[in-house]
Amino acid sequence: MIFNPEKECMSREDLRKLQSERLVKIVKHAYDNVPMYKERMDALGVKPEDIKSIDDIVKLPFTTKKDLRDYYPDKLFAVPRSEIVRFHASSGTTGKPIVAGYTAHDVENWAEGVARVLAAGGMSKEDTVQVSYGYGLFTGGLGAHDGATKLGAAVLPTSAGNTSKQIMLMEDLQTTGLCCTPSYALFLAEEIEKEGKKDAIKLKSGFFGAEPWTEGMRKELEAKLGIKAYDIYGLTEISGPGVGGECECQNGTHLWEDMFYPEIINPETGEQLPDGVEGELVFTTLDKWGMPMLRYRTRDLTHLIHEKCECGRTLCRMGRILGRTDDMLIIRGVNVFPSQVESILLEIPEFQGQYYITVDRVNNVDTFDIDVELREEYYSDDIAAMNRLADKLVGRIVSVIGIKPKIHIVEPGSITRSMGKAKHVTDNRKFK
Ligand code: ADP
Ligand code: ZN
Question: How many angstroms separate the CA atoms of 315 and 312, rounded?
């Protein structure tokens, strides 16, 4: 089902008109109410009147995560505090978190973004949507919750964790939709299998996001849970989950570009890149008033597709996110994204999608160790057989990534499972 056909299927011409009108308004709002935007635009000699259409977006300055930290907690808010109805904050692994503030209108739009994703993945008011993203400051839980409510579905707000209770309720209430991180979905799937509940659960669709995941993981989750698995994308700075999501065609994540205008730029030069070319995703919020973002650099790497999708939606799509620029490891001079390892693992039938990478530097040489798990039926104490499988994996990694890792096959179930965003890497070089 298409939640808002008027917007999701509007002609590209009408869309451009709407984007232009909205950009003009939001730029003026940001300039008039946020000193940082005024200073930045003044420094570039750009006045709000210079922004007449969406093409003028390139005249605007970029905004970065550092700006959100520097202007912590609310100096990028563009409305009086009385207009703010919600705060969220995203992980502050390095110092202060970043804070987002929303007006009532912003929360409505955000919920619509999620409702569009849920509807695109087959959910309706007949469905029960289990929200197993964490509730709280993280946008995942409440974002998915409000979206499912807007759709009219019944929400089961389990939050993350407490896995056997989750599975019990999933079975007893006949949950049909599941929202969580792909890592937690994998853990849930393993536990469902262990409890022998696979046939008792009635899930139809999964909406997975908040971290990178691969096509291999899609197949794995679809098979293990008996569902269709859809990507849902978003970030706190732009609102939260539901900035975009996949449709039934599962061939790219539609971005709700009537609300969030996407660009792909060359991360080094800041220049816009054409369709199909990988670069950094940048968003301008076209209808968000509490904390408008002009050309926010997400650091997420992907490409855009503007060709019309078979589902009938005209809004553009993006390819899978390889990772963030700051997730990229440089090991012996080679760029490595953890999601590449996931992809390779899931192409080899004996391995499963759990892994943990440890990078270090010993005698001036980078070390690259990966703990991996075999599927239960392949794991044994036959050392020669285990070594053969490890060699097979090394061979694949060398041919795809270009460097040789040391593989450690560990007992199935021994790599720490994640309830939220998984941590896949320790880089000890940082401490040296
Ligand atoms: P934090 O910055 O603390 O991780 P967020 O929850 O706002 O906080 O995370 C947003 C980020 O999560 C995105 O910028 C992106 O890197 C990642 N992300 C979200 N959804 C997806 C997805 N579907 N695929 C890949 N990465 C995603
Ligand atoms: Zn589509």
Answer: 9
Q: Is the CB of 321 under 6 A from ligand 1?
A: yes
Tell me the C-alpha distance between 219 and 29, whole Å: 44
Whether the CB-CB separation of 388 and 320 falls below 8 Å is answered with no
The closest ligand to the CA of 280 turns out to be: 1
Asked whether the beta carbons of 90 and 180 are under 8 A apart, the reply is no
Average pLDDT estimate for 49-75? 97
Mutate to test the pocket of ligand 1, among 300, 318, 325, 343 (most ligand atoms within 8 A of CB): 300
Place of tokens 């007893």: 172
Residue type for position 363: N
DSSP tag of 254: E
Beta-carbon contacts of residue 105 (< 8 Å; ≥ 6 apart):
287, 289
Q: 44 vs 50, 60, 61, 356, 390, CA distance in Å? A: 12, 8, 8, 45, 55
Q: Is there an atom of ligand 1 within 6 Å of 236 CB?
A: yes
Which ligand 1 atom lies nearest to the CA of residue 240?
A: 7
User: 23 CB less than 6 Å from ligand 1?
Assistant: no
Answer yes or no: are the C-beta atoms of 136 and 145 closer than 8 Å.
Answer: no
Q: What's the rounded Cα separation, in Å, for the pair 259 and 243?
A: 8
Write the DSSP string, 388-426. Answer: HHHHHHHHHHHHHTSSPPEEEEE-TT-SPP-SSSPP-EE
Question: pLDDT of 324-362, one tens digit each?
Answer: 998 999 999 999 999 999 999 999 999 999 999 999 999
Mean pLDDT for 37-56 is 98
> What confidence tens digit (pLDDT) does each residue in 142-160 have?
999 999 999 999 999 999 9
Identify whether the C-beta of residue 96 lies closer than 8 Å to the C-beta of residue 72: yes
Say if residues 183 and 417 touch (Cβ distance below 8 Å).
yes
> Quick one: three-class SS letters along 178-207?
EEECHHHHHHHHHHHHHCCCCCCCCCCEEE
The pair of three-digit structure tokens given for residue 428, joined into one six-digit string: 């000890």
